[in-house]
């Protein structure tokens, strides 16, 4: 016990120095992480204030937070006596080993950069990407978050998005409605075409330019099929589709133009019994 007490007395200054260094390093970490959050938050707000896409600003702020946090950790280790040059070398070697085992994560990170640079979509767009359809909320370092039409929160890896086709339904201001209307073979085709055109001419959401298309497309098994292709504003796509579908059915009924059910003719052949 006396030996331990004597050792503490002999190394008191050294222990105090180490304790101060340790406390200082902890303070550096605590203050540094707060600064990292503050810097990333300020950057995000500044980019949004300048009307930069929220998805891009979210990605940039996340990346900034990670870089500042890494710098703070290195500074704290340096303060407690860890040789940062050696640490960085070890960190690089460890990073290489981890990178080989986490190729998917690195791929997601690189894909996130590609998304923010080429911007195939922005926050608020309705897209189909990575096998998921929904509204883009955020582009993060490794993933992109979407909200589906039925209000599900979906996180899609960035590499999955860039590795597949991306359909952006919100990129253009207008979209074309593609509808197929089948009528009976006994229907007056000229009357039917004029009725469909009149419905489109009178509907307030149907655009004059580009012009709509109405025509006979197919003599199907049970019906004569018309294609009805009006152009509408993207924001009015689904309401217009629902309204037109209902109105066309009602107007066809009023005009006595039938919409046939799928039908099949069955011919029964009765074989005569063999006479004995």
How many strands, what sense, and barrel or not for the largest sheet?
Answer: 5 strands, antiparallel
The strand count comes to: 10
**Structural class per helix/strand content?**
alpha+beta
Radius of gyration: 34 Å
Secondary structure tally, helices? 8
- CATH class of the largest domain equals Mainly Alpha
Order of helices and strands: HHHHHEEEEHEEEHEEEH
Strand order of the largest sheet: 4-3-2-1-5
Mean pLDDT: 82
The N- to C-terminal Cα distance equals 124 Å
* Count of spatially separate domains: 3
Q: Which word captures the global form?
A: elongated
The CATH topology of the largest domain is what? Helix Hairpins
Q: How does CATH name the architecture of the largest domain?
A: Orthogonal Bundle
Overview of this structure, please?
By secondary structure, this protein is of the alpha+beta class. The chain has three domains: 9-101, Helix Hairpins (Orthogonal Bundle), CATH 1.10.287; 120-168, Roll (SH3 type barrels); 174-254, Alpha-Beta Plaits (2-Layer Sandwich). It contains eight helices and ten strands. It has helices at 2-10, 12-49, 54-79, 84-101, 103-118, 158-162, 189-202, 237-254, and strands at residues 126-129, 132-139, 143-147, 153-157, 167-168, 174-176, 179-183, 213-219, 224-229, 231-233. It has a five-stranded antiparallel beta sheet. It has a three-stranded antiparallel beta sheet with strand order 7-9-8, with helices on one face. It has a two-stranded antiparallel sheet with strand order 6-10. Strand 3 (143-147) and strand 4 form a beta hairpin. Helix 4 packs across helix 5 and helix 7 packs across helix 8 (237-254). The radius of gyration is 34 Å and the shape is elongated. The chain starts with a helix and ends in a 22-residue tail after the last helix. 16% of the residues are buried. The mean pLDDT is 82.
């Amino acid at each position: 016990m006396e030996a331990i007490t004597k050792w503490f007395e002999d190394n008191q200054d050294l222990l105090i120095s180490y304790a101060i260094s340790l406390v200082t390093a902890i303070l550096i970490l605590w203050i540094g992480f707060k600064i990292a959050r503050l810097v990333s938050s300020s950057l995000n707000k500044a980019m949004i204030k300048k009307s930069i896409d929220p998805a891009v600003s979210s990605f940039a702020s996340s990346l900034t937070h990670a870089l500042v946090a890494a710098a703070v950790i290195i500074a704290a280790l340096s303060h407690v006596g860890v040789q940062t040059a050696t640490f960085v070398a070890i960190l690089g070697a460890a990073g290489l080993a981890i990178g080989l085992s986490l190729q998917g994560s690195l791929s997601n990170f690189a894909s996130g950069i590609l998304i923010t640079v080429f911007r195939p979509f922005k926050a608020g767009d309705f897209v189909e990407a990575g096998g998921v359809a929904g509204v883009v909320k955020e582009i993060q370092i490794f993933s992109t978050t979407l909200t589906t039409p039925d209000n599900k929160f979906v996180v899609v890896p960035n590499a999955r998005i860039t590795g597949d086709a991306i359909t952006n339904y919100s990129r253009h201001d207008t979209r074309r409605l593609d509808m197929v209307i089948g009528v009976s073979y006994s229907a007056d085709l000229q009357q039917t075409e004029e009725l469909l055109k009149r419905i489109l001419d009178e509907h307030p959401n149907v655009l004059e330019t580009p012009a709509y298309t109405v025509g006979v497309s197919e003599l199907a098994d049970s019906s004569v099929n018309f294609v009805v292709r009006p152009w509408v504003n993207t924001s009015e796509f689904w309401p217009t589709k629902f309204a037109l579908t209902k109105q066309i059915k009602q107007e066809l009924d009023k005009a006595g133009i039938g919409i046939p059910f799928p039908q099949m003719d069955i011919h029964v052949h009765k074989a005569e019994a063999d006479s004995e």
